[in-house]
Amino acid sequence: MTRINSNRISKHMSYSIKELTLNLNVNEKTILRWIDCGLKVIPGCKKPMLISGVSLKEFLKNKDQKKKVKLKRNQFFCFKCKVGCYAKRGSTKEIIERKIAVCRACNGKMSRIIKPHQKDYKILSTSV
Ligand SMILES: [Zn+2]
Questions:
Q1: Domains in the chain: boundaries
Q2: Contact (Cβ atoms closer than 8 angstroms) between residue 50 and residue 14
Q3: Ligand 1 centre distance from Cα of residue 125 (Å)
Q4: pLDDT in tens, 57-114
Q5: What are phi and psi of 123, to 5 degrees?
Q6: Which DSSP state fits 112?
Q7: Ligand 1: centre distance to CA 112 (Å)
Q8: What's the gap in Å between 82 CA and the centre of ligand 1?
Q9: Ligand 1 centroid to residue 111 C-alpha, Å
């Protein structure tokens, strides 16, 4: 997934979908999906549909925050549950800078990035 650089959007301007695809380097369908997901369109503008820079910036900010999941110690991010979950006993594996595991709740794949300062406690959780 590519990160969208909202710095290329000015708060004081309105954009058409076409302009946004060029500025943000995203697909038109992506913008239409954002509108479905609650991105506000300036009322009364149908052709072309206009989106104000302010609401777009706000939308992208909220979108980023929703993605971030706080993990507790020994928790992994489960791709199926979309939340922090605990690993099934003995399922954790380490791959370079990340650990993978199987979700205790849904048997889905989970992963967690190991930050350098957390390296010392990895031994605790990988022992089977
Ligand atoms: Zn799960």
A1: 6-67, 75-126
A2: yes
A3: 18
A4: 999 888 877 667 788 888 998 888 888 899 999 999 998 888 999 999 999 999 888 8
A5: -65, -35
A6: E
A7: 13
A8: 7
A9: 11
Task: Residue 42: name the closest of 24, 25, 17 by CA.
Answer: 17
Class of domain 6-67: mainly alpha
29 CA → ligand 1 middle, Å: 29
> Cα of 58 to ligand 1 centre, how many Å?
30
Q: Please state whether the predicted TM-score (pTM) of the whole model is above 0.85.
A: no
The whole-angstrom separation of Cα 124 and Cα 92 is 11
What is the CA(49)–ligand 1 centre distance, in A? Answer: 39
Tens of pLDDT, residue by residue over 84-93, are 899 999 999 9
Express each pLDDT in 114-125 by its tens digit: 876 655 444 444
Cα of 8 to ligand 1 centre, how many Å? 36
Q: Phi then psi for 76, rounded to 5 degrees?
A: -125, 160
